[in-house]
Specification:
The complex is a heterodimer of chains A (217) and B (233).
Chain A lengths: L3 H8 L2 H28 L5 H13 L2 H11 L10 H28 L1 H9 L4 H31 L11 H12 L4 H31 L4
Helix pairs in contact in A: 1-8, 2-3, 2-5, 2-7, 3-5, 4-5, 5-7, 6-7, 7-9, 8-9
Chain B lengths: L8 H47 L2 H16 L2 H16 L5 H27 L2 H9 L4 H16 L1 H14 L11 H12 L2 H30 L9
Helix pairs in contact in B: 1-2, 1-4, 1-7, 1-8, 1-9, 2-4, 3-4, 4-6, 4-7, 5-6, 7-9, 8-9
Chain lengths: 217, 233
């Protein structure tokens, strides 16, 4: 039987799911912006490094990266002894590559003319980028970042394979303990939808509101 | 018995590959098989639900929206567990992990492919539909000779992304115990006590597979695309 207590028990998985997704998003943000800049300007010919990073992260399942970190690299990097941190770093590393593509798309969308206008006013290329292009690019990037957070919330369920006590793991525990086969997973799925939907939706609407406000296309 | 000195990574990779290669090949083939099953099923579901969403009745649109929201909003792992454990409990239908996994991948991929097909169908301009109608073509003829030939070309680049993301998502099948590449790697890592090299090797296989497939799809797109009709989605 699936009872209210079971449901409340299941809810205990939500904080960890949120923690994994938001920490990995922050990590991805911190990695994504420099990567986008390196790829855009390719200082010292480093563009290839950004390219390699992005294509490697695009070509390997995030679960394999988690397993590699937690089981393969815990001896080298003590941080990865924690399954939680392995999962967060794996997701964050991949998110950095994805977010760099979102930012690059946004930077290109803001356009070359603004760069030329700013440099003709005597700003250096970096100043123009920092004060003219980047603030606008953030706004353009908001909907993309929203779907990236949604993706991270869903993919945080891979941490279940490492045994992290997040929402999927809790639903599995409830299924095993109560032998109720229908509700635990169904309710977990609905909870994921309830969590992802407002976040992605909010950033999407915020993006279009700010776009109108600042007259971006 | 004297214990041998641990092998250096390169020699170890050579030795475990020579020892375990039948399993690695089996795992890789299962991964590819699952990806193609999911894509093929998702292709049919995706086109049908995209057509239903664009041209269908109100009720159809609501049902399709619910289907898409469920499969795009929740994690694949939860869907796999749900279909493997809950559907038999609900319907009495008894299926093995492989079937449950394949069906879930199809439904999941269909929900994503629906979005791409819908975008591609809508990218075919409305005036073309009117032009076709004024030439006396029926709705089905218009679909068959005007809309789909264009839409199926436009959809290739986003569809390639779906191929990549579904291909990598098959690693989630590990929760059902299906012997795909990630699961096989986990077993080999546990048997050899050398997880670092084993997972790096598995990563390399995934990476090469995905990169080669991407090149192939790009090549196909270059071959069949209609110049001037390129839509970014």
């Amino acid at each position: 039987m699936f009872t209210l207590e079971n449901f409340l028990f299941l809810l205990q998985g939500v904080p960890n799911t949120l923690a994994i997704s938001f920490l990995s998003f922050a990590l991805g943000f911190a990695l994504g912006i420099p990567t986008a800049i390196v790829k855009q300007f390719s200082p010292y010919g480093l563009g290839y490094v950004a390219d390699a990073y992005i294509s490697v992260m695009r070509g390997i399942p995030v679960l394999v990266i988690m397993l590699l970190f937690h089981f393969g690299m815990a001896g080298i990097i003590p941080l990865f002894k924690s399954a939680f941190l392995s999962a967060t770093f794996a997701l964050g590393l991949r998110s950095g590559a994805f977010q760099s593509q979102i930012f690059r798309g946004a930077i290109n969308a803001v356009g070359r003319q603004q760069m030329m206008a700013a440099t003709s006013l005597g700003m250096s290329r970096w100043q123009a980028f920092r004060h003219v292009i980047l603030p606008q690019a953030f706004i353009v990037a908001l909907p993309g970042l929203g779907s990236e957070i949604a993706l991270l919330i869903k993919d945080s369920s891979y941490a279940f394979v490492l045994g992290v006590l997040e929402l999927t793991k809790y639903s599995d525990i409830v299924r095993k303990a109560t032998r109720s086969f229908l509700y635990p997973y169904l309710i977990a799925a609905i909870l994921y939808i309830i969590i992802t939907f407002p976040v992605a939706n909010y950033l999407d609407r915020l993006g279009s509101r700010l776009k109108t406000k600042y007259g971006l296309r | 018995m004297k214990t041998a000195a641990p092998l250096d990574p390169i020699s170890f990779i050579i030795s475990f590959v020579t020892e375990y290669y039948p399993f690695i090949i089996e795992g890789f083939l299962t991964t590819v098989e699952m990806t193609f099953l999911g894509l093929a099923g998702g292709f049919v579901l995706g086109i049908l639900s995209a057509l239903g969403d664009v041209y269908g009745t109100r009720l159809m649109k609501v049902i399709i929206a619910g289907y898409v929201e469920f499969f795009r909003g929740s994690p694949l792992i939860v869907q796999l567990l749900f279909f493997y454990f809950s559907i038999p409990a609900l319907t009495g239908l008894n299926w093995d992990a492989f079937t449950a996994g394949a069906v879930t991948l199809m439904l999941n991929s269909g929900a994503y492919q629906k979005g791409y097909f819908k975008g591609a169908i809508e990218a075919v301009f409305k005036d073309q539909l009117m032009a076709a109608k004024s030439l006396g073509m029926t709705f089905r003829q218009t679909l068959r000779h005007v809309v789909l030939p264009q839409a199926l070309r436009i959809v290739i680049p986003p569809w390639t992304n779906e191929y990549i993301s579904l291909g990598l998502s098959t690693s989630a099948l590990i929760v059902l115990g299906i012997r795909e590449l990630t699961n096989i790697s986990k077993s080999i890592a546990a048997q050899t006590f050398r997880p670092l090299e084993v997972y790096l090797f598995a990563s390399a296989i995934y990476f090469i597979w995905i990169t080669v497939s991407m090149r192939i799809f790009d090549w196909i797109y270059e071959k069949v695309k209609i110049p001037g009709l390129e839509v970014s989605m």
